[in-house]
Amino acid sequence: MNLIERAKNIILTPQKEWLVIEVENTVTIDLFKNYVAPLAAIPAVASFIGMSIIGFSVPMLGTIRLPIIAGISAMVMSFVFALIGVYLIALLIDALAPQFGATKNPAQALKVAAYSFTPAWLAGILSLLPSLSMLGVLAGLYGIYLLYLGLPVLMKVPQEKAAAYTAVSVVCSILIMIVFTMVVGSVGGGSIYGMGAIPTASRTSETAGTLNELEKMGKKMEEASKKMDDAKKSGDPQAEMKAATEALGVALGGSSQAEVVDKDKLKALLPETIGDLKRNSLEGEKSAMGEFKVAKAEARYADENNHQIKISITDTGGSKMFGAMFAWGMMEQDKETDAGYEKMGKVNGRPTHERFQKDGSTGEYSLLVGGRFLVETRGENVDMATIKTASAAVAYDKLEAMKNEGIKP
Predict the structure, then answer these.
(1) Which spans are transmembrane here (predicted)?
(2) Which secondary-structure segment (H or E) carries 280?
(3) Would you put residue 338 in left (φ > 0), alpha (ψ -120 to 50) or beta?
(4) 276 SS3 class
């Protein structure tokens, strides 16, 4: 087994690769030594570099770095727990098999668990820049799709029960990973305000509902892979680059195809004043990478007493996978420290994220409207009530009315 080829194939052509994996006689220690350990080391090492060497920016405080010893401890524990986690999740998958008409087989369960983690481990390189680490959630969601494809092949679960088997396995696995994350956080500096948002609840039905979108995404990934192979055979570097860019766009944008709302429409939703704060800047932009499209409008407000508000509206182009990147639909959190608090949940059915420092220096309130519009409001030297009032000034109902705009049938 070649690690690079296996990782590439399980991500780009998973349906074919699971059939190859099914008949392999893989020794457990070899699977861990030659595949799991090298890939699991990527997020552990990258996170250490990102948090302890590069550091992360905190408003009013500048760049903060975790102490080296704490960073090393967290890195080692993260790596060890990744290995243990794969093994425990494999035991879980095997134990659940009879409940869904599948065949108990510890060796096959271990393979399906290990290889399903591939995209999440590879995306761990994003932890070099802590601000990008949330993109790893998207890779984790693709891992759910890989699990969904692998269970019928390796565990012989009937296709009609594969979604339920996947959903229950994922929910139970999340509970396992929550415990691990909490332990790592307690050692590696999880007490630092604003770090380590951990889901405290996950909904089986929502996990299962995501699988349809993931399946569409998987089919597009296979199509993108074929285009990459054809471009490679052509020997045209420009064609290869174009195909690779399209594949990345599919991975980021998921299965939805839509034209984003015009940036000027988004700019029009940002008011000229919010209470005593006057708008002093207004910007709009649109960008695209393959099928992944984004439009954004941003405004800044301030008064003479240095009270500041920044509001941004980002249109993800109707991409449900990009919205799922924030995992709000599957997360709840209520965390409080001496420095501040952080909450994740839903308000009027919309996923929300709220964070505030008790000294009133900074705070933010974000929510997802219509499954595609991300409204982010950040404030300095203002209270949370002011931040939420500023957010509501965007007029969520108007955004909601545009949720299907540009989406192709």
Answers:
(1) 35-56, 68-93, 120-151, 163-185
(2) strand 277-289
(3) alpha
(4) coil
Average pLDDT of the chain? 76
Sign of CA dihedral 247, 249, 255, 259: negative
Angle between helices 135-154 and 14-22 (to 10 degrees): 50
Domain positions in the chain are 3-223, 263-401
For the chain, the first-to-last Cα distance in angstroms comes to: 41
Tokens read off for 107:
């060796």
| CA atoms in the 13 A half-sphere facing the CB of 47 | 28
d(CA 103, CA 98): 7
Cα 75 from Cα 109, distance rounded (Å): 27
- By CB neighbour count within 10 A (0-12 exposed, 13-18 middle, 19+ buried), where does 140 fall? buried
Are 375 and 313 in contact, with CB atoms under 8 Å apart?
yes
Q: What angle do CA 342, 345, 350 make, to 5 degrees?
A: 130
Go through 49-67 and write b for each residue having 16 or more CB atoms within 10 A of its CB, e for each that does not.
bbbbeeebeeeeeeeeebe
* pTM summary value: 0.50
In tens, the pLDDT along 294-353 reads 788 999 999 999 999 999 998 876 554 444 444 455 556 688 888 889 887 888 888 888
CB count, 10 Å around CB of 230? Answer: 12
Length of the chain: 409
Strand order in the sheet with 277-289: 273-274, 277-289, 292-302, 308-315, 373-380, 362-369, 350-357, 340-347, 333-336
Angle between the N-to-C axes of helices 204-234 and 135-154, in degrees from 0 to 180, rounded to the nearest 10 = 90
Which tokens sit at 280? 């002093």
Those residues whose C-beta lies under 8 Å from the C-beta of residue 315, and which sit 6 or more positions away, are 260, 261, 266, 294, 295, 296, 372, 373
